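step 4 of 6: structure.
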Amino acid sequence: MKLLEQNRALVTGGSRGLGRVLCKHLALQGANVAFNYSSDSDGAAETLRMLEQCETSALSFQVSVTDANGLNQMAKEIEQAWGGIDILINNAGISQPLPIALMEESDWDSVMDINIKGQFLTARAVLRGMIRRKGGCILNIGSLAGLRLLEAPIHYSASKAAVKGFTEALSKEVARYNIRVNCLAPGLLEEGVAQNLPEHRLREYLKHVALHRKGTLDEVARFAAFLVSDRNSYMNGATVIIDGGL
Amino acid sequence: MNGKDEMDGYQSYGRHVNPVLAEFLALSGRDDRFVRAEGCSLITEDGDRYADWICGFGSANTGHNPDWLLECIRNHLSGNPPNLFPESLNPFSGQLAADLVRAAGRSFETCYFSNSGSEAVEAAIKTAIAATGRKSILSASGAYHGTTLGALSLMSDNMYRKPFEPLLPYHSIPVNNVAELQHALEKHSPAAFILEPVQMESGVRIPASDYLRQAASLCHDYGALMILDEVQTGMGRTGTLFAFQQTTTLPDILVLGKSLGGGLLPIGATLFREGLFRQAYGNYLSCEINNSTFGGNALSCRVAQEVLSRIANEDFLREVRNRAELLSQSIHSKLHNHPMVSRIKMCGLLGGITLHDVDHPWFSWKHLGLEAFEGRPITGPLLVHRMYRRRFLTQICAHDWSTLRIEPPLTVSETQCLEFVDALREELDWIHANNQ
């Protein structure tokens, strides 16, 4: 039996990067996978094509994680299609390589809106059903940049630090409904914020990583699939770091 | 994308073309993926439209992908003509040369075609040396003639030339100093003196109105050739077809490139005054010692001919002058008193705004994570960054980072000019406020 057979999962930001690979690994473990994306229709189509090969059901929605009404509608449609959502992975996130001197209020707001408020809005949309059914699992994607003193844009680090607090408080609040909430905080990966790091700083970072390399999206997504499975039934409110040993 | 084999062209650029530039663009948030170009705009894959005020450093004077030029290319290719004419008469280069000579003035006679402005400069240098039998070239300090080894020899900026020295023998003199020029001509007996009518890359230095004529006259007195590099100032950029036509100067060699190819085809052209070609390459053995396989290819020449006929049209040039006047007035009225602005220079639709440098530590290169630029002016690049965020593509001058270059397509509209100046004003206000 596969790890996530008969599970229905929603991944935010599934049209590219880690989101797409998360979709893949959930599907490989037998879950039906729905995902949303904000603008990358070609990327979304690519993810859908990939999911079709996994022989599970797949749904995609073009809706931003900052659009509360759109998220509610999406959750409703998934529930109508599949009867519920068992797993939510709050993955959608952005960053900009900006020092504070060049950071606009609007930059701060957009990163906060997508990276943390988006997790709240999506969780709220999905939790209604989970609470009614008294069961579910939420995994919020954080970052090492929100936990350690790393060279990262301040709005990104702040938003990811907020993800940890959000995870802990929410886990406490919804545990009574048999819903687990955890946070997965990767270090630098082959894609994502690592691409905004100058080569010499990346080398310096990797010197301190015990495995001396960046993580792959597959490594993170494989682990995420385990975290949201029933085999991980006692972990709740935790922030788990996956960084190759820093 | 995961595997290295799955990289798209943009990612492959970062791996296989210029990894350092790709990294810098990502770091500075300027790694947008442009997929379309039309008129004065570049458009990203997300549909964001950027106003192009770099214009391929003056290579797209007639705008991006104008319909009439695309039509010309389609028509030309539909006839399946030969593109290369090795060891045979080339009617396309012949026609273009005739048009260029007619447009540049009756003192010119022949034209050599290559694939870029740099190559056209090389041809000018070689021809001057071959024609005069002299070995060195005189150039102006602050010049930018290209980055091939010969052209690079004429560049005084260390960043560009230092790693490649030793280069050709050259001597550099300051612009606008007739006495220095005379002294250098006397002392070094150079084959030629090469000069840009506007030194764009050193912060838009425009020689005094009579300097070009005096320089040409002195060169003739001392047996040196006068080369004018109009790669950037030519093709209507300054309001006349060629900048020298605003003076009474008659250069011996005229160098063209960039917009001659309409922003679509690479082409360089070197025009020689009457008799000069035979003087340099006047026998059967030497008539092809300076050559280029693709120089004068039919497609590039046909495109250049079409572009030339458009730009040389007096109505077109009048419109350029009108637009330049409007832009200049707008820039002066809105910026000349700005506390961040130290100097404004305009010559047609070519110009620059020189800026005072910021001094707040949080605007230091170090704080911005770009220690490699330490010691260079920062306000110019900062303004480029700010303008980019507002979807204006701008750039600083290569030798003078304190100067923001002004170089839109010549087809820029009045509205686009006014929007640009308003954006500049607001961003300079922002920099000033944040430098307190």
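step 5 of 6: annotate
 - Chain A touches chain B through 18 residues (CB under 8 Å).
 - The longest helix of chain A spans residues 105-133.
step 6 of 6: archive
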